[in-house]
Every structure is written in C-alpha cells, then in structure tokens.
Amino acid sequence: MKLVGYTIDEVMGKNLVQEFITKEYRAAVSAVLDKALRGKETANFEFPLITKNGVRIEVLLNATTRRDEQGNVIGVVGIGQDITARLAQEREYSKLIDTANAPIFGVDNEGRVNVWNQCARKLVGYSTDEVMGHSLVQEFITQDYQASVQAVLDQALAGVETANFEFPLITKAGARIEVLLNATTRRNEHGRVIGVVGEFYCVSCQSVMHHFHLAD
Q1: Strand order in the sheet with 207-215
Q2: Residue 183: burial class (beta carbons within 10 Å; 0-12, 13-18, 19+)
Q3: 100-215 belongs to which homologous superfamily?
Q4: Where are the domains of the chain?
C-alpha cells in the first residue's frame, strides 16, 4: 500500500492488469498470471506499476500458484520488489562503461558476452550485435588458450583471484593481440559472488585496458 499509494478499499476487487499495469505490459503480465493459475510459477519477472500519484515504478515479481487445502488452484500470490533505484543505477553504470576511455567487455556465468563498450568495439573490431550472447572463450580466444582462460574465469567465480595472466585475443581482422588480465571476484551487497571484474594490459599495443567486467 505504501509503495503504490492506494488504500485496500481502492484496490480490492479491481482488475490488477487493466487498472494498475501500463498498457504495453498488460499482455505480458496477464500471461505470467495465467501460467501461475495453471500451476506454472514465474520468478524474477520485471514490469512497471503506476502509483496513485502517476509515478512509474519498476517491480520484480515472483508469481506463485495459490492452492486450497485440497490442492485446487484458487489464485495467485505475487511478491513484488521495487527495483526502480537499482535499475537507474545499472543504466547509469552501463552508460559510464560504454563511454569509458578503455576497452571494457564482460560475460555472464555461462561465458556469454553481455558487456561490449565503444573502446572494445574499436580494439577488437566487432560490433555489439556481433558479440552479444556469444561465447567469449570459444569464439574470441585462440584454441590453445581456451582451457586456461576458462580456468581463470572459473577460479574468479569461485572466489580465487588471478593477477597478470597473459593470453591472446583475436580481432575481427584476424590479428592476435596479447593481453594481461587481473581477474577479481565481483560480489553483490550480500557478499554473494555474481561475476568477475578484471583489468587488462594490452601487451601488443602497449596500452592499458581497464575494467574487464564479467557480469551475471
């Protein structure tokens, strides 16, 4: 009630989707609720809610099937978390990363590229569309170094940091550039490992590359 601003009397019996969800997200939210009514629960679904004052807030929803004592589905229980501030910080961080005066890129926990800034595009030659979602190790590291680079990343994700690890990257033009990597474990506010932050030194081009970022 405090988050959205409506009293219980103002919302009870009203249609959640039609009256409190922005138009462009109504179909998606309805689909999540329909799945939960069929017993298929959804975790970490992001969508906006409009407060009584007309402010748009971003919510992370876990939709759980609600059942009676006989196990019959009788509704959906949703637990929402306000992530408006967090998303704003992430957008600002992404903007800073993309415009940084150093090549910055990252991968998720599966090794897929999810960060690729302007300097990385200039250095390696690939556009963002060409690398996002692709395997860093399998597609951009020479075959003879794939196992060792993967081991460094896995160690960092396990909390074991690595300094001055040298390996080659292959540019779009086929050139091989040598880099030194300092891989540091990245943790969230609760201390849980969520990725790796690294710093590169480009041996081939004699320039410092900062903040190699492995994010989840």
Answers
A1: 162-170, 176-187, 193-202, 207-215
A2: buried
A3: PAS domain (3.30.450.20)
A4: 8-82, 100-215
b/e sequence 109-124, b meaning 16+ C-beta within 10 Å: bebbbbbbbbbbbebb
> CA–CA separation, 60 vs 83, rounded Å?
7
pTM given for the model: 0.61
**How distant, in Å, are the alpha carbons of 116, 125, 157, 195, 205 from that of 198?**
14, 20, 12, 10, 18
189: buried, middle or exposed (CB in 10 Å: 19+, 13-18, 0-12)?
exposed
Q: Do domains 8-82 and 100-215 have the same CATH topology?
A: yes
- pLDDT tens digits, 13-26: 888 888 888 888 89
CATH superfamily of the domain spanning 8-82: PAS domain (3.30.450.20)
Lowest mean pLDDT among 9-13, 79-83, 104-108, 138-142: 104-108
Helix, coil or strand: residue 31? helix
- Residue that the structure tokens 């329909």 belong to: 34
Distance from first CA to last CA of the chain, Å, rounded?
32
C-alpha closest to that of 182 among 145, 143, 208: 208
